[in-house]
Structure formats: C-alpha cells, structure tokens
Amino acid sequence: MIKPNDDDVLSFSGDIQGWDLAAGKVNAVLGEIERTAAEHRDGGQLAAILIREGADCEYLSVNGGGWRKGKVKLKMVFEFIPDTPDSPLDDLR
Q1: What is the reported pTM?
Q2: How buried is 46 (Cβ within 10 angstroms: 0-12 exposed, 13-18 middle, 19+ buried)?
Q3: Consecutive 10-residue averages of pLDDT for the chain (93 residues)
C-alpha cells in the first residue's frame, strides 16, 4: 500500500460506474471528488464507490519509478475536535 503525495498523479482507466474523473494530481482529484459529492444530488455515490470498491488507475509518483497500475481507494479517518482546546497548563491545575 502506498500513501500518495498531493503532487503524485492519478490516471483512471475509464469511468467509475458512470462517474468520469479527470487525470491529475492527487490533490486535484480529491478536490474533484469533494465537489462532485457536494454539487450533485447523488454525488455521494462516487465517494461511496471509492471507499467500498476503489477504482482502477495508473499512479505516477513524483519520487520516480514510472507509471504503476493498481487501484485507488478512499479511506475514512475520524477526527475529534473538542469545543475547548487542551491547554498545556491543564496538568498543573
């Protein structure tokens, strides 16, 4: 498993169950997925497909190595943001 950098490039081998993603840098592809999910009534389906099944693509790392065929999947990460931030002084109180 490889965690792509924002500047690495993804190129998809076709549409993803009716959704067409443009080839581009990872950060641009993620932005396109985010916009699709927000702007289209059923746009969340694209994200769901990428989370569940992934999509066939080719990957090019800025660190070299040439194009590699594989699959890209979205991984969900939960993050907790407290209403009141922790203070370094909390331990002293």
Answers
A1: 0.74
A2: buried
A3: 91 86 92 87 85 93 93 85 74 63
